[in-house]
Fold this protein.
Amino acid sequence: MPTTRDIRILAEVHRFRTVTSEHLAALVFPGVGARTVQERLRRLALAGYLDRRYFVAVRTGRTPLTRLRMPVYVLGSAGHRALFGAARRSEKHAPLATSVEHLSHDLVAVDFLVALEVAAKSGDHDAPVHIESVTEYALRKRSRGAGLRLIPDAAVTLRYGNRTAAFALEVVRAPVRRGNATLTRKLRGYQAAARDGSLGRLLGAPVRAVIVALRTPLREKRLRAAGARSGLIWTVPYERFETAGPPATHFTPETILTLPMTDLAGRTYSLGAPFTPERETPSPLR
């Protein structure tokens, strides 16, 4: 029978749908060594409570095989029965992404949500209060019947003193040479949804920014050069280093609140202080 902590692990896996041991260590095992966490997850996987998935490397001669052996965890059939039996409710076991690209995309969003949630709950008096983290899957369920065409990859709501702000996340994994026109159209759609209030209604709070997470600073610069000047759209390069396994991002509990994010008008903010720009950089749009 799963323990109380096991049930919490299963609940977090179900909430985020796709996680690594690093995510679960931050959420459920603060201060516990990595080997202890991995052994606990291994036992749950052997019992069918969790399923382990691995990235498959396509050898190109360029991509390092870093993190390739790191498993990705999803809820197993026994875990689903244990979790919803304990909660006295049922829900269909929703399909999960299976391709490497989709898993990588989803894991970047989970990195963002987990890092913010852990940082906001750290007890630091300067940290905002965490209100809600929402995955793309949960946002799609929430938007049913609303007629919304744009669904963010994730969203988080934070409170700063007496001000509450929602942030949407759009993850872009396409390389520099592809997708700028499509992405620019999507960002204009977000701007329209913010103006008419539909994005705020979806997120349940006033929208401070749509954060566009890009793989590299070069993609960020080209997007700023191609887009309209906007204080709503913030860009941030997320890739810490290239890997053939789960992505390694700058979204960690230690850095997420101070990570510089630049709007399309060239002003730099952070999630720790989202209402006052830290500095203004020359914009290619001027």
Remarks:
- The chain has two domains: 1-96, 98-286.
- The chain has a mean pLDDT of 85.
- The two ends are 63 Å apart (CA to CA).
- Residues 100-120 form the longest helix (21 residues).
